[in-house]
Amino acid sequence: MKHCTFLFTSSTDFLKKIIALTIFFFLFSFSSHAQEEHSTNATGKITGRIIDTVSGQPIEYATISLLTQADNKVVNGATADDKGIFTITEVADGTYTILIYFIGYKTGTQNNIVVSKLNPTPVLGDIKLTGSKTTLKEVTVTAEKSIIENKIDKMIYNADKDITSQTGVALDILKKVPQVSVDIDGNVELQGNSSIRFLINGKPSIIFGSNITEVLQSIPASQIQSIEIITSPGAKYDAQGTGGIINIILKKSTAEGINGNISLSAGTRLENGSLNLNAHHGHFGANAFFSGNAQLNSTTINKMNRSSQDTAFMQTSQLLQNGTSDFTRNGYETGVGIDWEITPKDNFTGSFGYNFFGNNNSGIANRQSIVNDASGATLSNVNDVVNTANKFQEHTIDSGVSLISLLY
Known about the structure:
This protein is mainly beta. It has helices spanning about 1-40, 170-175, 210-220, and strands spanning about 45-50, 65-70, 75-80, 85-90, 95-100, 110-115, 125-130, 150, 155, 180, 190, 195-200, 225-230, 245-250, 255-265, 270-280, 285-310, 315-345, 345-370, 380-405.
């Protein structure tokens, strides 16, 4: 009885193994059949070429994605070669959409691509991509100017950035500019040289035809934007101003009107006077100036007592002289000019000037010449009077017109 039971148990285990193997074989056969059937159906192929819309040149290495048109599900993809040609293989029958991507171009779309037994290898031909233009927003970089800027060919003093330079006149600002010195009389030197050419807004100005010190005292500091110092002028400047160039940049202003200044000084010996008048309307300006000085009559007293001996004749000579001389001097310069700014780079100027200088020197001297012998007796006694007079006058006329076009 026990022996039979053992045999029955062994047969049951074996049967279970047979059934399990049968089920596994069935499932494996079904899976293989399904994969083989799917592989058999996915034999389609889609080809095409990606080109630029404008140039017609192929777009290399663009990315192509294949989507089912029904649910927009990505099922395959490819990359174009160096000639823009792409091929998508193992495509099952169906209706598809392809999307083409490339940097700098809008995304390309091709719909209704049908792969079927009747059309297993659709050839899409040339697919054009349009470039995408991206306009960046304007970027503004803001930085504060320093008071002093050192350029390759010049140094700039930004007066409008110096709060201490908003009062006074141009001479007061020049005292703060490195390499520039201004003495107590208003004379300007650049690196110790007084031969300086002054410009306003990069152009010569007729107002500098008058006394430079007076002109610099007439320009308000609040109207100056910056001062450029050029110690080694280039070829675009003429030879005037061997010591360098000082270019005064004025703030842009539409102010119009008339302005000027009068300066007078008087004393017992010297007298000075000047008038500077400016008028501006639109792009046209005019200027008139007068500057004069005079040295009042001054008297100089001359006295002389000279003795000499002649040992050969044993004589003594004596020369006595008493006299005075009067000296006067006067001079002036005057002129008018116009300044027309035709364009921001074209400027017309005209000027006329008259200069006068003269002096007068006159004198009188009483002379006495006495000759004595060795004993002291007078041999001769001569008295005479000497009158002198010198007069000098000089007149000059200056005129000119110029049209200046700036090429920089």
